[in-house]
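Holo model, adenosine-5'-triphosphate. Inputs:
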Amino acid sequence: MNSLFRHLVAKGEKPNPQYIASERRLRDRPIIDARHLTKVYRMEAVEVVALCDVSLVVYEGEFISIMGPSGSGKSTMLHILGALDQPTSGEYYLDGIDLAKLKDRELAAIRNRKIGFVFQNFNLLPRTSALRQVELPLIYAGAADRTRRAREALEAVGLGDRVYHRPNELSGGEQQRVAIARAIVTNPAIVLADEPTGNLDSRSGIEVLKIFQKMNRERGITTIFVTHDTFVARHTNRIVMLRDGQIVADRIVPNPYKAGSVDRPSQDAALQAIFNLTAGPRSAKAHPA
Ligand SMILES: Nc1ncnc2c1ncn2[C@@H]1O[C@H](COP(=O)(O)OP(=O)(O)OP(=O)(O)O)[C@@H](O)[C@H]1O
Ligand SMILES: [Mg+2]
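Output:
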């Protein structure tokens, strides 16, 4: 345990998540260990290098946002981390397992057991009740007690009174919460989400963020999501910035916002807050004595 963390705990203060994150780094096994990932899409005559030598280690319980301009490789990276796609080169260990060594059937089992996915457009089945959607991963896994577990997952996302609703009978925010329930019902080690708040209005976005924070805090689910929204990113513990297929910044967020407790500032102010607070001694250089 590092001294600052010990000091905070001894004083009975609630430890700052940024210290928890660094603490985990010393103590825990990485849940994601990606080394020198490259992804090249080959189209007829052209090659698109979507990821170029990306290495990333994520420790259990972290809550990370991946940011970056359109086309910078965020979705490509999330798909590889979620074992939905293979890198062209590089190594990827998920919870200590070398994914390159697995056969398709084994990969599918790992995806089902260890990973929950949430997409921007919810990806729910039409004409299917919320309860049934959430039961599906349990059916694939051959799990027992499916209806009870699906109900519990829906209750956990605040939809205990909507279990028989179909997607067209739910709001966008509620549909996304069904998708989250479906992602967590198998008790995955990690949840990956590609712009989960991208299609939602601000209020529903905050509701969805609250659920991600709760799942991360209470169940320790490692969470990685892609967002374009700096305010949303400010609610996570760490921000990884991609540009042109490479990681150009990787910062711990000091004092992440608790969803619903802070009003949305201007985009500029949010970004500045993140980078000024973590920049350290750079400002000293800007004001020479
Ligand atoms: N299946 C594919 N075949 C060919 N090129 C692809 C494919 N998928 C993505 N690309 C290219 O790879 C690059 C990275 O794409 P990616 O979807 O990862 O970007 P992104 O950061 O998620 O962008 P956005 O914010 O717009 O969703 C882009 O230049 C894109 O055109
Ligand atoms: Mg994308």
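The chain has a mean pLDDT of 86. The longest strand covers residues 30-42.
Archived with the compound record.
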